């Protein structure tokens, strides 16, 4: 096996891995998990604002 063959095999393996990751990312079973993760930043802001509001009301 020469270096060209090894590089070719490595390229094919990386391409197959890329295709597997793309299929995994766009599968319908994962959509709800990704939507939840995407919206989690907004949930944290609401919780932080409510916590800050409670802390300021307790100090009065």
On the 0 to 100 scale, the average pLDDT is 84
Q: Can you count the beta strands?
A: 0
Whole-number tally of structural domains = 1
Query: Structural class of the helices, strands and pairings?
Result: mainly alpha
How many DSSP H or I helices?
2
- Determine the strand fraction and express it as a percent band: under 5%
Gross morphology is elongated
Low-confidence stretches: none
Radius of gyration: 24 Å
Q: Helix proportion of residues, in percent? A: over 70%
User: Main sheet, how many strands, which sense, barrel?
Assistant: none
Order of helices and strands: HH
Give the end-to-end Cα distance, rounded to a whole number of Å.
Answer: 77 Å
Topology:
Layout: H1 3-25, H2 31-58
């Amino acid at each position: 096996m020469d270096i060209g063959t090894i590089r070719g095999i490595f390229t094919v393996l990386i391409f197959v891995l890329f295709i597997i990751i793309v299929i995994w990312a766009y599968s319908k079973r994962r959509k709800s998990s990704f939507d939840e993760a995407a919206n989690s930043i907004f949930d944290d802001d609401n919780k932080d604002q409510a916590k800050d509001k409670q802390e300021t009301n307790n100090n009065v």
